[in-house]
Amino acid sequence: MNRSLKLLLLGSALFAVSACAAPNREPDLSNIQANVDKTREGDFGELLYHLDAAADKSERAEEIKQSIDADAPYLYTNLPLRQEGVRLAEEAAEHRARAEAALNRFLDPIRARLAYLESLHVPQDVGPQTTSVYFDTGSAAIRDSESAAMTDAGNFLSQYPIAHVQINAYTDTVGSTNANKALAQRRAKSVMNAMAEAGVPLAADVSVIAVGEAEGEDNVENQQNRRVDIIVQPHGTYNKGM
Predict the structure, then answer these.
(1) Is residue 164 within 8 Å of residue 204, measured between CB atoms?
(2) Signal sequence span per UniProt (predicted)?
(3) Architecture of domain 129-240
(4) Residues 88/64, Cβ–Cβ less than 8 Å
(5) Which of 25, 102, 216, 234 has its CA at 20 to 30 Å from residue 63's CA atom?
(6) Crossing angle for the helix pair 177-197 and 147-159, nearest 10 degrees?
(7) In contact, 51 and 98? CB cutoff 8 Å
């Protein structure tokens, strides 16, 4: 057998062997949907999905807005394009809200565990602390004279950040019941905002009750009733009640 024929046979044999040994590089498409679905499983998967969807839709809405803003003000802007931008922005906001809800569900067990661990280190004789913040008639603005009370509540919360916080807002009986209910809500919001701006930790569960008019004779000014009570109960003594 001449040399050329031997080389030809050897080459053919090597090609056949390599073809048999080479892995199948054809992509397996059968599990694509299953794997995609797995990435969306559970609260963490839902969080990732909605964050990505919110980012995508908000980016597209922003592109439409920039396109509309670039048009001369006297030109007629494509109405369907405007509607598409509004729709995308609304859907982005909805995805963001659902992402936050999924995040909270993901974190709730961790928060509960932290609350339990914190309760092990809270002295059992530490009861709830109530701090009252007083307001002028018809006002929801926090007076400068109430800064010490706000500081006391903030210091206690900083010491026991894992706690139950209850905020009860009251008014006196001057004015209508509905107006006083709305005023109580504004007072509660003012206190919440002031605590947040001061960096007070509100990692605890917080409940807000806008009580409105306190009990008493109608149409009577009463400074003691124009107040917001901040009740902080460390979890270690939570079972004692508030």
Answers:
(1) yes
(2) 1-21
(3) 2-Layer Sandwich (3.30)
(4) yes
(5) 102
(6) 60
(7) no
